[in-house]
């Protein structure tokens, strides 16, 4: 449901706005009339040549936009909030709602894009990343702030971020993004209980009464079935369910993970032993032929799960995901970077969607992004990959980076779609995509363009300053 304000007519043929309100609105300098080349969202709102009447918030730490009205230019010209207002022309720009990112690691942003050596493999890559992080020694707070800035620069307003440390979660919570920060927990065998106890202490210390209404909440992520024991999954799931939040996790990311969980052999097994993580007790629960999802399925029943990757899924895995009501946070650029589609075959996200599973896109960390996209951290680039590679329709692609992400993060989906023509709504964000020189209908132009989605307030900042100077 979209929120409707009483004083704004939703039927434009009937102007029942009180005269006082109309004059007040006309004099309000924070209200802008924007003419754009088009607008589209995931629910079928789709028009070329649109106008939007927007009230921009001046507070730097809120990411919401009051959309007084949006619609085809000819229809909106009669709207009381549009009449007599100087338009701002964005002739090549398409308006889209604020975006979601269902899986990110903002605290790795300072590492920047890095190459992947397919011959050395995933396990060697993890070792390289840990080493690079130690060498750079960038403060966590700086890395997370950089990640937040790059998210905003890519039109992302809501995030499911994995926080490697309590400090990372704290910075995220104090920032402008909404969504959930998932405090990450590892722990196999003898370490599992003490690691969980420490995480629980942090989680409890970060929670206060009234948090359920906070724009950004803190939950927990058991890292993956090969690095967090079933006891840790049990404890984390119970805690999250008690607080009415989802957990996040990495499921079914690599062939090495499948081999280790099912057979207790292979490069992941050797890596864990080398790190001293996989003691005899830790290894007991592996090697029984289960897929990673089957391995922890019972532990997470009754808790919402945001499962990152799921690069490979058996039919039974897909049944389990559907029964759990899980969200799959598919990270297309990350999967392509690690060549998972050549190892596993194409990702089954469309089978999952057809089965009623909520699929939302995530960026994963900036490490696996092409350098030319590293000025931002945005799921629009992942959606574009699916549109170009798989022919996913622009509207379906937009759903994966707006309403499906909102559903995963427990946010109001109506803040990520446009209201009916002329109606009033409060959105989580309003972006512009400069599609100059790109042909097609508005949604196709958004998917074919290579420019980032940019918050309207960023786009207009210079012009608004110029306007203020003239006055
Ligand atoms: Zn991840």
- Helical/strand content category: alpha/beta
Overall mean pLDDT stands at 91
Q: Kindly report the CATH topology of the largest domain.
A: TIM Barrel
What are the low-pLDDT stretches, counting only 5+ consecutive residues below 50? Answer: 1-18
CATH superfamily of the largest domain, called what? Metal-dependent hydrolases
The total count of helices amounts to 20
Describe what you observe in this structure.
- With 471 residues, this protein is of the alpha/beta class.
- It has two domains: 19-97 and 414-470, Urease, subunit C, domain 1; 99-401, TIM Barrel.
- The chain contains 20 helices and 15 strands.
- The protein has helices spanning 19-27, 73-76, 121-136, 140-153, 166-174, 192-205, 230-242, 255-263, 267-274, 280-284, 292-296, 315-324, 332-337, 340-344, 349-354, 379-390, 394-400, 403-409, 442-448, 456-470; strands at 31-40, 46-55, 65-72, 87-97, 99-104, 156-163, 178-185, 216-222, 247-251, 305-309, 327-330, 358-361, 425-427, 430-434, 453-455.
- A seven-stranded mixed β-sheet has the order 13-3-2-1-4-14-15. The chain has a four-stranded parallel β-sheet with strand order 5-6-7-8, with helices on both faces.
- Helix 4 (140-153) crosses helix 5 (166-174), helix 6 (192-205) packs parallel to helix 7 (230-242) and helix 16 (379-390) runs antiparallel to helix 17 (394-400).
- It is elongated, with a radius of gyration of 23 Å.
- The protein binds zinc ion.
- Residues 103, 105, 162, 250, 308, 364 line the site of zinc ion.
């Amino acid at each position: 449901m979209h929120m409707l304000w009483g004083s704004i007519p939703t039927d434009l043929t009937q102007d029942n706005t009180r005269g006082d309100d109309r004059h007040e609105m006309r004099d309000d300098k924070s209200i802008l009339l924007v003419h754009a080349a088009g607008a589209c969202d995931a629910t079928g709102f789709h028009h070329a040549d649109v106008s939007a009447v927007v009230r921009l918030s001046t507070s730097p730490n809120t990411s919401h936009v009051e959309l007084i009205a949006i619609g085809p230019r000819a229809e909106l010209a009669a709207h009381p909030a549009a009449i007599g207002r100087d338009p701002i022309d964005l002739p090549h720009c398409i308006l889209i709602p604020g975006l979601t990112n269902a899986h990110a690691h903002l605290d790795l942003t300072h590492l920047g894009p890095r190459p992947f050596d397919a011959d050395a493999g995933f396990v060697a890559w993890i070792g390289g990343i840990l080493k690079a992080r130690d060498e750079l020694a960038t403060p966590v707070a700086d890395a997370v702030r950089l990640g937040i800035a790059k998210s905003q620069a890519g039109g992302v307003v809501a995030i499911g971020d994995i926080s490697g440390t309590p400090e990372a979660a704290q910075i995220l919570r104090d920032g402008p993004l909404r969504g959930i920060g998932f405090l990450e927990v590892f722990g196999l065998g003898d370490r599992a209980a003490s690691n969980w106890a420490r995480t629980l202490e942090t989680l409890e210390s970060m929670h206060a009464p009234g948090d359920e209404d906070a724009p950004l909440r803190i939950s927990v992520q058991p890292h993956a079935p090969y690095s967090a024991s079933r006891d840790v999954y049990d404890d984390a799931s119970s805690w999250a369910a008690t607080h009415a939040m989802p957990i996040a996790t990495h499921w079914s990311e690599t062939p090495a993970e499948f081999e280790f969980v099912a057979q207790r052999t292979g490069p992941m097994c050797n890596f864990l032993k080398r790190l001293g993580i996989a003691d005899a007790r830790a290894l007991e629960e592996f090697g029984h032929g289960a897929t990673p999802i089957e391995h922890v399925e019972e532990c997470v029943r009754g808790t919402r799960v945001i499962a990152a990757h799921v690069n490979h899924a058996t039919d039974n895995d897909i049944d389990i995901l559907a029964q759990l009501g899980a969200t799959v946070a598919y990270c297309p650029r990350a999967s392509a970077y690690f060549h998972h589609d050549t190892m596993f075959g194409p990702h089954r996200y469309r089978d999952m969607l057809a089965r009623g599973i909520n699929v939302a896109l995530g960026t994963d960390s900036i490490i696996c992004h092409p350098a030319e996209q590293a000025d931002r951290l945005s799921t629009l680039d992942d959606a574009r990959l699916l549109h170009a590679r798989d022919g996913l329709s622009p509207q379906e692609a937009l759903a994966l980076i707006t309403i499906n992400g909102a559903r995963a993060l427990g946010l109001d989906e109506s803040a990520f779609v446009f209201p009916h023509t002329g109606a009033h709504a409060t959105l989580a964000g309003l972006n512009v995509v400069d599609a100059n020189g790109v042909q097609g209908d508005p949604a196709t132009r958004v998917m074919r363009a290579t420019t980032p989605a940019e918050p309207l307030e960023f786009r207009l900042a210079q012009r608004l300053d110029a306007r203020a100077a003239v006055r």
